[in-house]
Amino acid sequence: MVNRTAHKEARLPQAKTLRVLLADDLALFREGMKHILLGLDDSVEVIEAGSYNEARKRISDEAKFGMALVDLAMPGLDEFKGLKALCEEIGDVPVVIVSAIEGGNEIRRAMDCGASGYVPKTLDSNIVLSALNLVISGGVYLPTNLLGGADGGSDRRGGENGKGPLTPRQCDVLDLMAKGYSNRQIARTLDLAEGTVKLHVTAVLKALNVSNRTQAVIKATAIGLTAKSMGT
Fold first, then answer.
1. How far apart are the C-alpha atoms of 204 and 201, rounded to whole Å?
2. Is residue 227 part of a domain?
3. 3-state secondary structure (DSSP) of residue 223
4. Tell me, what's the pLDDT at 227?
5. Residues 139, 164: one domain?
6. Calpha distance 209→212 (Å, rounded)
7. What integer pLDDT is reported at residue 6 of this predicted model?
8. Domain C-terminal end among 146, 163, 191
9. Is residue 229 part of a domain?
10. Could you give the residue ranges of the DSSP H alpha helices within the chain?
11. Residue 214 sits in a domain of what CATH number?
12. Number of domain units in the chain
């Protein structure tokens, strides 16, 4: 049981009800996650689904959601093929993967499907709340092991122990930003949805602590994060 008093500082400022789709085949996990979600706001309304087909039905039948939490290993999901379809069906609603799978490759593939965040089930409830608040605010959440270049990710971006602040896919997006590519051109080049590219660009700006693409390219080049600055 989560102590909601301890999470008051993390509550959402908005007064309207936040409707959350919670899709996971384990009823016990859904029950625990509902208690955590109450830390976001007392008026959170959780709509449950125990399978991929049930999740799709909820998306079709229910009023607009504010966020969706989806297990990557849910029955019927067919992993990334189903996830991509679900992200497309739910539209601009942020989808957060909550999974026991923590491999960097799986995380990157989930983000490429259009997910707005990836939350390992091993995380502390306080970190989960912070991650969900970040996503609701328009940001992108990734576990720190991936941000450090886990699972064989590219380490040519420098930083302590050769690890950079960006994921390999964000590095690819940054390189094309440095070449002056638009989001549409980046999406075409990397075979991604344009919405997914926007999420990656937002994450790059946040990681570099800048407010626009020009500042991101200037700062990234100066500190050796772009392919051009590395001479590649």
1. 5
2. no
3. coil
4. 64
5. no
6. 9
7. 44
8. 146
9. no
10. 27-37, 52-61, 79-90, 104-112, 125-136, 144-147, 168-178, 183-190, 194-208, 213-222
11. 1.10.10.10
12. 2
Under 8 Å CB-to-CB from 8, ≥6 apart: which residues?
none
Report which DSSP code applies to 69: E
Mean pLDDT by 10-residue block, N- to C-terminus, for the chain (232 residues)? 44 66 95 90 89 93 90 86 91 92 80 86 88 82 57 40 64 88 91 87 87 82 65 47
User: Both tokens of residue 110?
Assistant: 């989930």
Nearest-angstrom CA–CA distance, 157 and 164: 5
Q: Are residue 170 and residue 191 in the same domain, yes or no? A: yes
Q: What is the pLDDT of residue 165?
A: 65
210 CB-contact burial (10 Å; exposed 0-12 / middle 13-18 / buried 19+): middle
- Residue 122: which domain range? 4-146
At residue 161, the pLDDT reads 32
Long-range CB contact pairs, 51-54, < 8 A, 24+: 51/23, 51/25, 51/75, 51/76, 52/23, 52/76, 52/77, 52/78, 52/82, 52/86, 54/23
128 lies in the same domain as 28: yes
Q: Please report whether residue 231 resides in a domain.
A: no
Domain boundary among 116, 146, 176: 146
Q: According to the model, what pLDDT value does residue 162 have?
A: 34
In terms of Cα–Cα distance, which of 71, 129, 61 is closest to 101?
71
Cα 89 off chain centre by: 17
